[in-house]
């Protein structure tokens, strides 16, 4: 068997992965308008022709990077295996995971900010993000239902509203850390401040949904 087609396939996949990684950094740093294809090509050790061949124009590349960012966090959430935990423990782990993911993946937060400036124009074209997002809502709904059955959560909580709140209490702190550090006169990114914040976030969410916090 001729190994060359297989090698070419591996090389193509490796090149695409490098382009996406470089594009993620460039878009996160400069947004869609400020990002430069030349910079992405240089960082990915590829040429512009390859980028256009694999991903189309800059807008298409941004959409794919954004899709991958959302799919990555959804895939990481599925790996938590929360359905096998008691509901309260599962919810605490989910809130903590969201916080830690935002901390470890600042590009995700920046990309989401950028897409909101574009009024979700690129996500509207995606056929992949919607199903993954619905799985997230279903997962949280399952935890809530299990908590009601276990007698620890209040009934009637909207899983979409809860998802929004969990994202908000984690997301806002990090996106406003520079102004917050100045205005509240504390280092919001110091370890003790981060530890105190995630403890506060978990306590806040559990008080919202638990019969007895």
TrEMBL record:
Protein keywords: DNA-binding
Annotated DNA-binding residue span(s): 36-55
Domain of life: Bacteria
Protein name: TetR/AcrR family transcriptional regulator
Pfam families for this protein: TetR_C_29, TetR_N
UniProt cross-references to Gene3D superfamilies, sorted A to Z: Tetracycline Repressor, domain 2
Matches recorded under InterPro entries: Homeodomain-like_sf, HTH-type_TetR-like_transc_reg, HTH_TetR, NicS_C, Tet_transcr_reg_TetR-rel_C_sf
Gene Ontology molecular function: DNA binding
Residue intervals of the HTH tetR-type domain: 13-73
Membrane-spanning parts: none
Coiled-coil residue spans: none
């Amino acid at each position: 068997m001729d190994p060359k087609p297989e090698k070419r396939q591996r090389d193509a996949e490796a090149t695409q992965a490098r382009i996406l990684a470089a594009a993620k950094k460039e878009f996160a740093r400069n947004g869609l308008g400020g990002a430069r294809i030349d910079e992405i090509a240089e960082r990915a050790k590829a040429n512009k022709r390859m980028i256009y061949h694999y991903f189309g124009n800059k807008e298409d590349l941004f959409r794919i990077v954004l899709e991958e960012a959302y799919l990555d966090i959804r895939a990481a959430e599925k790996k938590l295996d929360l359905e096998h935990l008691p509901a309260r423990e599962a919810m605490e782990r989910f809130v903590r995971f969201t916080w830690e993911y935002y901390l470890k993946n600042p590009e995700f937060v920046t990309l989401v900010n950028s897409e909101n400036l574009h009024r979700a124009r690129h996500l509207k074209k995606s056929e992949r993000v919607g199903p993954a997002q619905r799985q997230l809502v279903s997962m949280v709904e399952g935890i809530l239902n299990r908590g009601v059955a276990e007698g620890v959560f209040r009934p009637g909580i909207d899983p979409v509203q809860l998802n929004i709140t969990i994202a908000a209490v984690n997301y806002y702190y990090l996106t406003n850390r520079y102004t917050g550090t100045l205005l509240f006169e504390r280092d919001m990114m110091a370890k003790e401040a981060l530890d105190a914040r995630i403890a506060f976030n978990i306590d806040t969410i559990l008080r919202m949904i638990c019969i007895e916090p």
